[in-house]
Specification:
four-stranded mixed β-sheet, two-stranded antiparallel ribbon, about 45% helix, 6 strands, single chain, alpha+beta
Length: about 475
């Protein structure tokens, strides 16, 4: 049998910036910028404060994104990981069936900050980690996610270990050990979606992945074949070791998961499985009056219905996974933004009444990201719209630069000044040319209370966000 762990480790350890085509560099820079913007926006969420209240933070050199102060590299990786996933606004990937960047970027930035790594090294390490975690997912999904494992942490911790190992310049044997250590730290349940534990998953993926790489660098030991061992990761999570391991290894350095199917940048701060329903419902909004709606049917792929049927969400976190609530908001407002997960909109009587009339069903198409919304009006008329957004906007359906910048600004405006946001966005867009990570992380913290940004700066055409 192919030695999966050593072979994957060798490929990741050998990756160089020169190996990365321009399109890969572009999408890696964009994903890093998006994740960091989400971390800035999420830093003030209650889940972050509760983690910090419990965590005995040690002093250190690594930035606390969206906050003042610095912390030990492991603590910063965990706290920033929770912050980046707190709003469920970070990117997705269809093969991973989860969030690829949020499991890696906070740890990588914490480590790069400590070392003052170059932007080129940070970018290369990110690509190594993302490619590794998605390739492992290819061997495991859909059964892995369907069993209830949360891929953002179960694959993500491996990606974080690889990314941090690459930034530490681990050689292939040490990289295999880092993967082996991380494999024993992989755990997270989809049952906790819609609770504070889901963003905690991202925090633990970052902390444990970084810890695995640091331990491997220090000479710690682990089984260097932990993924494919008879008692290893694949056997434990999948029930058996796949006979064909080539999907994880073939095409490395040539066929990048970052480009196909790609990293999907979210346009709404909620579960990506529902985005097609939001888009379809929003398309109908101008043709109807909410008071006239008698019934709504949302048809999604059957695999998508398992975790998003929540007719009466308990709170804002739970509402991010409620197809009923989000479809109702889109029908009433034509969009979904940050304010929809907070009072007073969360408690809006008209929304609750309309959500109670939303029914879910399964369509029979193969497209995982396809959704249909059918609205029946009181006079018997039926209106229908469909949307397929591939879990967001990846290379096949990208956001415009204006739309991406609008999201970046919406995420950062409450914490960073306009000048900081401009400089940070520009630096991340040209990440490969940046000599100092610390020069960038200094822009991720509030130097002082930012002056109000003008209302005209709020959103570019096509943006769907509020903060």
């Amino acid at each position: 049998m192919t030695s999966l762990t050593p072979e994957l480790a060798a490929r990741a350890a050998a990756l160089r910036l020169d190996d990365l085509p321009a399109a890969v560099r572009h999408w890696a820079s964009r994903a890093l910028a998006d994740t960091l913007a989400c971390a800035v926006a999420g830093a003030s969420e209650a889940v972050v404060g509760q983690v910090q209240a419990v965590l005995p933070m040690a002093p250190g050199a690594s930035v606390l994104i969206g906050q003042t102060g610095r912390a030990h590299v492991l603590d910063a990786a965990q706290i920033n990981g929770v912050a980046a996933h707190a709003l469920d606004f970070d990117d997705c990937n269809l093969e991973m069936d989860g969030h690829p960047s949020v499991s890696i970027v906070p740890a990588l930035v914490a480590l790069a900050d400590r070392q003052d790594a170059s932007g080129a090294d940070l970018l290369t390490a990110y690509v190594a980690g993302v490619e590794a975690e998605i390739r492992i997912a290819r061997l495991s999904n859909p059964a892995h996610a369907d069993r209830g494992w949360h891929p953002t942490v179960t694959f993500g911790v491996l990606g974080a270990a690889v990314a941090c190992g690459r930034l530490l310049n681990l050689q292939a044997p040490q990289m295999a050990v880092a993967i082996g250590i991380a494999a024993s730290c992989a755990s997270g349940l989809r049952a906790n979606s819609g609770t504070m534990t889901k963003p905690l998953h991202a925090g633990q993926a970052n902390r444990n992945g970084l810890q695995a790489a640091l331990l491997a660098q220090a000479g710690f030991t682990a089984n260097p074949a932990a993924l494919e061992h008879k008692f290893g990761y694949m056997a434990a999570f999948n029930g058996s070791v796949p006979a064909d391991l080539s999907p994880a290894l073939d095409g490395w350095g040539q066929d990048y998961a970052l480009l196909a199917p790609g990293i999907a940048i979210k346009q709404y701060p909620c579960c990506a499985f529902i985005h097609c329903a939001i888009d379809a419902a929003a398309a109908l909004r101008d043709d109807i009056d909410g008071a006239e709606i008698a019934a709504v049917e949302v048809a999604l792929h059957p695999r998508r219905l398992k975790n998003i049927d929540r007719p009466q969400p308990r709170d804002g976190l739970d509402a991010k996974f409620s197809t009923q609530y989000l479809t109702a908001r889109a029908l009433l407002a034509g969009r979904v933004g940050f304010a929809d997960f907070e009072p007073p909109l969360l408690d809006d009587a008209a929304t609750k009444a309309l959500a109670a009339r939303v029914r879910l069903s399964a369509h029979d198409a193969d497209d995982l990201s396809l959704g249909h919304v059918t609205v029946t009006l009181a006079d018997g008329r039926r209106l229908k719209a469909s949307a397929s957004v591939a879990m967001g906007r990846g290379p096949a359906n990208p956001m415009t630069e204006a739309q991406f910048r609008a999201k970046f600004d919406d995420c950062t405006r409450a914490i960073l000044s306009a000048a900081q946001a401009d400089a940070l966005h520009a630096g991340l867009a040209a990440l490969a040319d940046q000599p100092s990570t610390r020069a960038l992380t200094a822009l991720m913290q509030p130097a002082s209370l930012p002056s109000p940004r003008p209302e005209s700066d709020r959103a570019a055409p096509g943006a769907q966000h509020e903060r």
